[in-house]
Amino acid sequence: MAQEGQSAETASKDFTYMSGMLARFYDDLEHDDPPQPYGGVSIRDRHTKPAQKREVPVDWILEKWFAQGAFDGLNDEARDILLISIETGCRQSEVFNLPASAICLEGPIPHLRIAHELSNDPDERREVKNLPSHREIPLVGVALAAAKRHPKGFPRYRNRSSYSAAVNKYLRENSLMPEGITIGGTRHSWESRMKRAGYQMDDRGELMGHSLKQSRGREVYGDGMTLADRLLIAQEVMLSVPEHLK
């Protein structure tokens, strides 16, 4: 691979993409026990230490991002996508590609529905990373406030790839991002908050959209967490909401 100019990380991602395509194909067929020829395949460079995914520190979020005026130079959609990421652990694309029907603000537990959306309307159609990523995420704190401001989603960024670069650039130019970290670190920060609160890997994995079968190395049985269960966890690790972000 190295002789062909391809890194081990790139090759491993290719296997992941092929596995995801097959999974979606068999899911559409409602196959109960689909073959998984690429399941668990991972290629690593033996001479490279795996990189630790870095998080945005909680103190940084509270002191820098939650400061009055910190996001004044950002458009309101970019700001609120970031705020939703902070309190849901969602991947950025899972937020900015949300169709209106997936932002569920009515009912006792406001939440986001992360799932494949099949529709003839391009604004309602969506694919997510893989089957374990299908989940419901309660909205609390700054995420709930942000979702209420955008009940129809984020048309400026939907089905586009401009969000990450634009927001990372703004944060860096305004000294609002720690060195060596990107906005993807909000996802890792949310899991760390759950870990510090004492929640085990399985519970964190369900909320993060990770494959429990892969992390356990065996089949997963029994029912998953209810939305009410997820809400209790989200409320426990929720950050205080400053007045100007309510």
Please tell me about this protein's structure:
The chain has 10 helices and 3 strands, in the order ααααβββαααααα. α3 (76-88) runs antiparallel to α5 (141-149). β1 (103-104) and β2 form a beta hairpin. The chain has helices spanning 8-28, 58-65, 76-88, 92-96, 141-149, 163-173, 185-196, 201-208, 212-216, 227-237; strands at 103-104, 111-114, 135-138. Helices cover 42% and strands 4% of the residues. It starts with 7 loop residues before the first helix and ends in a 9-residue tail after the last helix. It has a 3-stranded antiparallel sheet. With 246 residues, it is mostly helical.
Q: In what range is the share of β-strand residues?
A: under 5%
CATH class of the largest domain: Mainly Alpha
Strand order of the largest sheet: 1-2-3
Subunit organisation of the chains: single chain
Biggest β-sheet: count, sense, barrel? 3 strands, antiparallel
* CATH fold group of the largest domain: hpI Integrase, Chain A
**N-end to C-end Cα span:** 51 Å
Low-pLDDT stretches: 215-222
Count of structural domains: 2
Total number of strands = 3
H/E order of the elements? Answer: HHHHEEEHHHHHH
Compute the average pLDDT. 81
The structural class is mainly alpha
State the CATH architecture of the largest domain: Orthogonal Bundle
CATH homologous superfamily of the largest domain? Intergrase catalytic core
Question: Whole-number radius of gyration?
Answer: 19 Å
Helix count equals: 10
Describe the global form: globular
- Residues in helix, %: 40-55%
